[in-house]
Amino acid sequence: GRLYGTYPLSEDQTVEIIQENGHHNDITIKDGQVSMTFSDCRNQICVASGAISQTKDTIVCLPNKVVVEIIGEKPGDVDIITGTSGPAGAAGAVGAVSSAEGGDADGAVS
Length: 110
Known about the structure:
The chain has 110 residues and is mainly beta. 4% of the residues lie in helices and 44% in strands. The protein has one helix spanning 45-48; strands spanning 2-6, 13-18, 24-30, 33-39, 58-61, 66-74, 77-82, 95-98.
């Protein structure tokens, strides 16, 4: 996966993930929770999944190959990694990772 950056969960913001293949996802950090607030994928499962806030919670946009995962020891001391795979970042930060590979396969996560 590709690391886009690290962002603290304590700061409300929206992170735009725009891949080389043109796919676009917005990840919103608000009130210590994270959600996928926009995706140009067809099925919109990632957007409908809602906000996450606990360690090891995930949001997956399978068509765009983007994953959001909270990693940390305790609330307020967490990371978010987004992408197909990748190592955890530093505690208290949000990392953005995504794959620019692949096409438009629709899929669901079970």
